[in-house]
Amino acid sequence: MLARSYVKELMREAGLTVREDTVGNIFGRWEGQKSEAVLTGSHCDAIPLAGMYDGTLGVIGAIEALAALKRSGFQPGRSLEVMMFTSEEPTRFGLSCIGSRAMAGVLSPEELESKKDEEGNVFKEAANKAGYGGASHEDILKGALVKPQTYSHFVELHIEQGPLLEQEGLDIGIVTGIAAPAALTIEFTGAGGHAGALLMHFRNDAGLAAAEIALEVERSVLDMKSEDTVGTTGILEIKPGAINSVPREAKLGIDIRDVSEERRDAVVKRVLKAAEEVAARRKVGVVSRIINQDPPATCSSEIAAATAKAAAALKLKTKHMVSRAYHDSLFMARIAPTSMIFIPCKDGISHRPDEFASAKHIEQGVHVLALTMAELSQGAWPDKQEL
Predict the structure, then answer these.
(1) pTM, rounded to two decimals
(2) How far apart (Å, rounded) are the C-alpha atoms in residues 233 and 214?
(3) In this structure, are residues 172 and 343 in contact, taking their beta carbons and an 8 Å threshold?
(4) pLDDT band at 94 (very low <50, low <70, confident <90, very high)
(5) In Å, how far from its chain's centre is CA 133?
(6) How far is 19 from 79, CA to CA, in rounded Å?
(7) Which are the contacts of 114, defined by CB distance < 8 A and separation ≥ 6?
(8) How many Å apart are CA 160 and CA 348, to the nearest integer?
(9) E-assigned strands of 17-68?
């Protein structure tokens, strides 16, 4: 709540009109000659033991971009808005991008109501306690839904979360596509037993079944022969978890991503088929579930061109690239033409406490964002442009 208050304070200090929607997204608006707005923003929530730059750059940096345009005397044609998305990370309710999903109308009341935090609270209870929300999850989602022609463009400033810009000595990444994950859970159930007394040929080892699938994820991804296809077994839980007990339960949490929906879904299909085959061969039970399987997004060539023009004016070196990480931009692309601007982060590290982006690269990213927003706004500069 302190972070939310701080962001709203920064927006007001920048001369923006602040509002919140029912799902908890925060907006700061600079009214232009046209009501249709160019929107920018990101998130400030984080996973445990994360860094300081993922998301926050695209909120704090975006506020400064609009403030700099104001100081320069720029007059917006299309209105300009900056926002902070709520619940981009799945940390509390197990669902990512709640704020942008709600805006795009791709989240049902039933799905939102099914998500609970560790204390058993549903989203509505947490939202109402925080000062927004509504009488029901249906009301919350209706209140956050974006009407057509509200936004002309959406652009998100973000650290790359990968090493390419730094390794190649480049300043700005211009994002052309956003990969989307398919998230799966696979649970095996075996008989278990004593590690010494239960002979090998009598075993129905759920742990070994899970190990086979973890390797199958890697094999299936590599067989696609595309660097854009990635797969991760991020969760592997074994029960009862004793060194002298044959595993009787095993649960895998699997993340498969690609900018190609066809390739990604081919991997998903292959992994699910392998789970059935392994279960039959090892005589264990299996339950598989697809948690989400969102489509990837193709980014706007118009925004990419505006970003390239801004970077060229600042004599910065650029690279057209895909985003392999999940962002609110994935769902904003369903509302308006969307793209992202990346800056380098040290050693490509993200989602760790040692995540870092230099002041120089942050300044460059904010400057490029400001000029990109101005270009998309189709506004007017003073006689002497100085930003």
Answers:
(1) 0.88
(2) 6
(3) yes
(4) confident
(5) 22
(6) 15
(7) none
(8) 7
(9) 17-20, 26-30, 34-43
